[in-house]
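Exercise 7. Predict the joint structure of the components listed below.
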Amino acid sequence: MSLRLPGPLAALCGALLRAWARLVGVGALTALAVGGITVAVFALGNPEGSLGLGRLAELLHLPEARDWLTDTRSALEADGPLARVALASGVAALVLGLVTLVGALLPAPRRRLALPAAAGGTSDHGRAEEASKRLSARPRAVARALATAIARDNPDVERVVVRVRPRRRGVGGRALALVTLSPSASRAGHELERARALARKFEVDLRARLKRTRPSRARSARLGRAERRARGRRVTYG
Amino acid sequence: MTAGPASPRLVLARVAERAVAVTPAVAGVAGPRGRWSTRDGERTIDGVVVTAVAGDGAGGERYEVDLHLAVSWPPPAFDALARELRERIVAGAARQGLAGVVAAVAVSIEDVVSPLELARRNVEPGRGTP
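Solution:
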């Protein structure tokens, strides 16, 4: 039996589950980091002093752990198999930490927007036809094109910020345009339609949020409409 | 120009360069630190990367051609543009005696620029770093 949710509800559930998974992941990692730092700080102190692992076990109300730590420390200090295991574990922990650090610092590959390929490959080799149809675009280029489509020939558009997110699989993606209109703006629909038509070329779902700048009487008096046009429009791409 | 016969990889890069040059409203993009360019003796071919790929076992190397392009505003129909470029490259390769070596042609749109900017890039190759 399969449970089918309506589209918007499924999307909402998916978003909530992803957010929850991210939260749990961040929480678990934070707890692990705090625990690790605490143990490391206590491990640096004198074992018998106020800042030793024994003291930490006491603070955590773990008398068995304290006893075990005392025994283990004694075994570690003596030459034997446990000391060798401890050395190997220490080296492995160091390597694992370095590998994790490198993995965390490596820049993530930038996703590209896959575009719908032309019907019928033109490769001279049938097997390679699928590969030969590869067509992609940089999200920033698509954002620039969409922003231009919105702001071009429209003096009422003061600022456009477009963000494009490619789909993880398949062609196309989603785009969000934040459009700031001048207080006296009367229209933006035509430009948005033009941008949507362009977005369809990229298989991008374009959503737009319109905002009007607040009219300032003093400013309006100082700057006429024509003068404001001459100041130019700021168009940014994201 | 380099002395001696050019490698098939270089010949394909030149063919791809010509295909881009004769296609209206596009220009090659060199990419960050010239990542998407091919050295051709003293000069570089911007926006063209040719890579040898595993053969099909029948002998002879095959190559994949990656094109990194800037297109001029308004953006053309990309599928038609890509098809046109592929056809030109495959036909050009065949004319150079390299029929059957083009395994794939991948087209990446790196930038959408004004026609003026595109003309400037075509005149001054190497400017196309996005």
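Discussion. The CA atoms of residues 23 and 81 of chain B lie 8 Å apart.
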